[in-house]
Inverse folding.
């Protein structure tokens, strides 16, 4: 198939991609002119009895375990179908806030299902993209032709519903995956119509090489960066100076926000720079936070040359071009800063790490080549074969991941000790999940009761909450009582 966009959106049973599950997937494949080339795709995902959905998420989407059990696929089959759609050669998987949200759910889904979490993002001419940062760039740098909404403090609103409402785009059924896909395509068409050069430019940043050529550490220069990190009244854009590559993450470049004075970078001790970089503003008191941040070249950053910032846009964004240029010259005169900043970021990594293999997509490291061969064999084996003759793994996560894979997707093949082990695992997860951000069974029911007690519930919301309580009763009877 020729190069295409696969515009997609997820509805989920919660907001944490490491823990929560996909409830619905919808997609429309278009050509590069944003015209559909095939029928829409809508899939639902079932949940397994080791998981509790977030009641508030269910109220937003209207999706419940009962509905997805009736219409949905087990997780392994949902993963296979998504992988197939996203891996068509020449596919750019795109969405709205997909880089930070939807893509993370997809990665974790593939990881739990013994599929490569990343390959569909780069292999065979494939890529990914996100319209949200395109909208932010359009607002800040090229706003003409598009209408915008602001809150009472003048902060621009970039929710999909805000953008569609401001521009008269039909978005009936917001928070229904297919409606959100259609609205995203319409918004992309609008921006492309009024700002075609910006559209094509940001599309080119799908390539890491294109970003690296721009964020050139051998010949650094000030760069315009648009990001939610810089959201304030007026916009989301600043000017930054690239300093060095992160010592542990080769796809991340550490940059400095030139709206602030860079002098502390060469005057303060490394430990003090580290403290003022990673301590929240609230805990710093009167001290100034040092505005260092990471720019991930593999996440389609909205970065552009300084020439992209017109004098009118700079004034609107309250960026003093002369001042940031002067500060850039000062930083260029201190090449030793690259080594200092790497030391700042060389402190022990405080990213969360868990013994639970479900949570180990990033902290657990990459699987080796031998295990990748095993993963391929899993997808060519029947559940019965995997139960009777489980493969050997090199990575210690493998055996437990396989037990969960079979229990979640093919519980009918479990017998004897394996069935009892799965039952106990589900009960433990419901009653006392290891992940501190997860809700337990008692809290799940209390939250539903509290939501039911709120006045003016709609008939739809009443039905959703009733379904969720029914699911709790089913778990108590079939999982917890059996334990």
């Amino acid at each position: 198939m020729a190069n295409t966009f696969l515009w997609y959106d997820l509805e989920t049973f919660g907001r944490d991609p490491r823990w929560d599950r996909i409830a619905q997937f919808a997609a429309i494949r278009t050509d590069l002119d944003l015209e559909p080339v095939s029928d829409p795709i809508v899939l639902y995902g079932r949940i397994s009895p080791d998981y509790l959905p977030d009641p508030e998420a269910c109220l937003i989407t209207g999706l419940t375990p009962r509905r997805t059990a009736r219409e949905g696929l087990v997780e392994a089959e949902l993963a296979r179908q998504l992988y197939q759609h996203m891996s068509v050669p020449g596919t750019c998987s795109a969405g709205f806030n997909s880089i930070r949200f939807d893509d993370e759910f997809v990665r974790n889904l593939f990881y739990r299902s013994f599929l490569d979490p990343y390959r569909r993002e780069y292999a065979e001419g494939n890529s990914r993209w996100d319209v949200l940062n395109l909208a932010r760039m359009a607002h800040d740098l090229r706003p003409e032709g598009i209408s915008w909404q602001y809150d009472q403090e003048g902060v621009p609103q970039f929710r999909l519903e805000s953008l569609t409402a401001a521009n008269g785009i039909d978005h009936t059924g917001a928070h229904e995956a297919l409606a959100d896909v259609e609205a995203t395509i319409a918004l992309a068409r609008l921006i492309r119509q009024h700002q075609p050069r910006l559209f094509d430019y940001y599309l080119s940043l799908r390539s890491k090489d294109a970003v690296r050529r721009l964020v050139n550490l051998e010949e650094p220069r000030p760069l315009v960066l648009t990001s939610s990190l810089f959201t304030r009244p007026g916009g989301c854009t600043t000017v930054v100076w690239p300093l060095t590559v992160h010592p542990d993450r080769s796809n991340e470049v550490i940059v400095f926000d030139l709206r602030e004075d860079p002098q502390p970078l060469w005057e303060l001790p490394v430990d003090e720079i580290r403290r003022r970089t990673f301590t929240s503003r609230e805990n710093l008191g009167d001290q100034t936070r040092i505005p260092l941040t990471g720019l991930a070249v593999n996440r389609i950053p909205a970065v552009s040359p300084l020439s992209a910032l017109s004098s009118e846009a700079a004034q609107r964004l309250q960026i003093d071009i002369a001042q940031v240029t002067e500060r850039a010259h000062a930083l260029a005169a201190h090449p030793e800063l690259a080594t200092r900043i790497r030391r700042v970021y060389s402190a022990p990594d405080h990213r969360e790490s868990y013994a639970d293999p479900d949570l180990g997509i990033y902290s657990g490291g990459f699987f080796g080549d031998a295990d990748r061969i095993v993963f391929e064999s899993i997808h060519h084996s029947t559940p019965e074969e995997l139960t009777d003759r489980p493969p050997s793994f090199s990575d210690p996560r493998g055996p437990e991941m396989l037990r969960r894979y079979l229990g979640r997707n093919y519980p009918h093949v479990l017998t004897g000790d394996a069935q009892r082990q799965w039952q106990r695992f589900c009960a433990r997860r419901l009653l006392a999940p290891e992940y501190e951000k997860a809700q337990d069974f008692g809290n799940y029911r209390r939250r539903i009761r509290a939501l039911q007690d709120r006045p003016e519930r709609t008939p739809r919301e009443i039905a959703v909450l009733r379904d969720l309580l029914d699911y709790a009763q089913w778990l108590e009877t079939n999982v917890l009582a059996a334990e």
In short: Strands lie at 4-12, 22-30, 41-44, 91-95, 127-130, 223-226, 237-245, 252-257, 292-296, 302-305. The radius of gyration is 24 Å. The chain has a mean pLDDT of 95. Residues 262 and 327 are 7 Å apart (CA to CA).
